[in-house]
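Reading is simple: each integer encodes one residue's backbone shape. The lines below illustrate:
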Amino acid sequence: MLALWSCESKTTTPAVTAATPATDSTRTVPVLGSYKGSIAGRYPFRLAITSQLNKTEVVGIYYYLKQQKPIRLWGILAPDGEIWLREIDPERPDTVATGWGPGGKVRHPFAYFRLRPASQGSLTGTWQGAKSDKQLPAQLTPYHISGPVQKAHVSERTYFEEFTAPEFTVSDMGVTEKLYWLFDIENLSEQTLQEEHRNHEKGGFQGYGGVSSEVTYNDRGLLSVSLRDEYTFANVNSRFWTILVDLRTGETLNENELDPAKEKAFLASCEAQLQQQLAAYLASEAGGLDSIDAAGLRSQHIGPEKWPDDMRIEKNGVSFNHSVEYDMMSNFMRKTYNEQFRLSFTFAEMARYLKPNSPLRRLQ
């Protein structure tokens, strides 16, 4: 566990495909798509039925325009043509829907829609709240975004009354679903949080400490989120990483946005910055470092075999992290160096190294 939770820059993020259910292409579902709608004419929302699991099951996502908090949906296509969609509680995603569906019970521990296709691609039916017998009318019509996404709406969700994670929605429902899975707390934490919560309730102080986040950029269809989490075992071990997303596609961005023909020049610029920072740091710590740590820092270089990582967009530019590694480096020094050597480029400087079609060119 200590090896997994050392203080390091996390350069890989959970793939959307790992969390998003696989689709079954053996049958076309005409209801797949995005909708705008309202419940009882008073609660406007956006909803998407995004994927088909098999011949009768679909999944999706929706959010109310007022709260802008994404809610997962799972549903069934009934033989009579109705579409049943139930909310999925992220703390209890495996809640059994016993008796839910055509001919079943009415009241359930989750809210759900009961819809039927209507004219011009619309859906009509009812919405029913969790643990309620009351049904409210729901009307949905096909929805198409009117222009390119510029910004994400930012909010936060608390899980098990102690763990928090950021949440994001945009007008494009397909991208909203991708954002949901990218920032799903169990994907971020790589932990089973229900077990961690039970341990904490019993008085355990070890284990997962949660995720903190900072949105460092949210404009021009680009989102950059800096994340940090902690795990306490023999020591308190931290991870730092950034998730950078193209809000117009929902795809993550990384160093692959660099033009291969410009990589050599980019690495040379990074190396020059790193050596300046190392010289300044060694001068400021003169007499404070032992010979192993001083020699270890002098051995640091950037090149084809050692790339900078953790690309992050900030207010005035783009930065990358250099992760310090050398033999016999202590865990204390690893924590000290973390985020210490970031290499920065203005937007104009960064544009010199990008592929012609890179989304990052919107920063200019």
The chain is about 20% helix and 35% strand. Residues 147-252 form a domain with the Heat Shock Protein 90 fold (CATH 3.30.565). Residues 263-284 form the longest helix (22 residues).
